[in-house]
Write a structure and sequence with these properties.
8 strands, eight-stranded antiparallel beta sheet, 28% helix
Length: 188
């Protein structure tokens, strides 16, 4: 897939107050917790079902968000993407890493993420059209990654949205998918 802009959302099983994410994400900037340049934290808590708290970076953003009326952490690559063959694996790895870091974050005790469902979006209509051919290409690239993430599990990759929406795939795994740490380690 040629899209540089990829979003991955990991859904939360439990949550924490929105205001607890702000100091956590500021600490990530201060202590350079992530292996990329992070710039600022923005509070969008006033937007219903919106971005919540956004960690803005040079090449990508991380967000504690409420889209679909469901909390979770999302990772969005904006620029400086790795080679096309590595983009989806990189985005999945970074989203899962953010989830595992948030689960360990002081002040966010009790926060847990589901591992049986992920959302992947290609946010580039030119290089990833939201049509049957675009979904077939996205699904073909996701299948080997999903096999690594959920070995031996029954997994479905379903098209989401309509033609006017970004190209989206929902990954659903059966029971026993493992923890966020386990999924992260399976991607290497």
């Amino acid at each position: 897939m040629q899209s540089n802009r990829i979003l991955v959302k990991v859904y939360a099983e439990t949550s924490a107050p929105l205001e607890h994410f702000i100091p956590a994400l500021h600490r990530w900037i201060r202590e350079q917790v992530l292996d990329e340049l992070m710039i600022d934290v923005a509070d969008y808590g006033h937007v219903k079902d919106g971005p919540g708290v956004l960690l803005v970076g040079h090449a990508s953003d991380y967000c504690w968000e409420q889209s679909e009326g469901r909390p979770g952490v999302s990772y969005t690559r904006k620029r400086d993407a790795p080679p096309p063959a590595e983009r989806l694996a990189d985005a999945l790895r970074r989203a899962l890493n953010a989830a595992r870091l948030l689960e360990r974050e002081p002040g966010l005790e009790g926060l847990r993420f589901k591992t049986d469902e992920l959302l992947v979006q290609a946010l580039d209509r030119l290089h990833a059209p939201a049509d049957a051919a675009g979904f077939a290409e996205l699904k073909a690239e996701l299948e080997p990654l999903v096999a690594r993430l959920f070995p031996g599990a029954s997994v479905g990759i379903e098209r989401e949205g309509e033609a006017r929406d970004p190209l989206s795939a929902r990954i659903r795994a059966g029971a026993g998918a493992g923890s966020v740490d386990e999924l992260f380690s399976r991607l290497g």
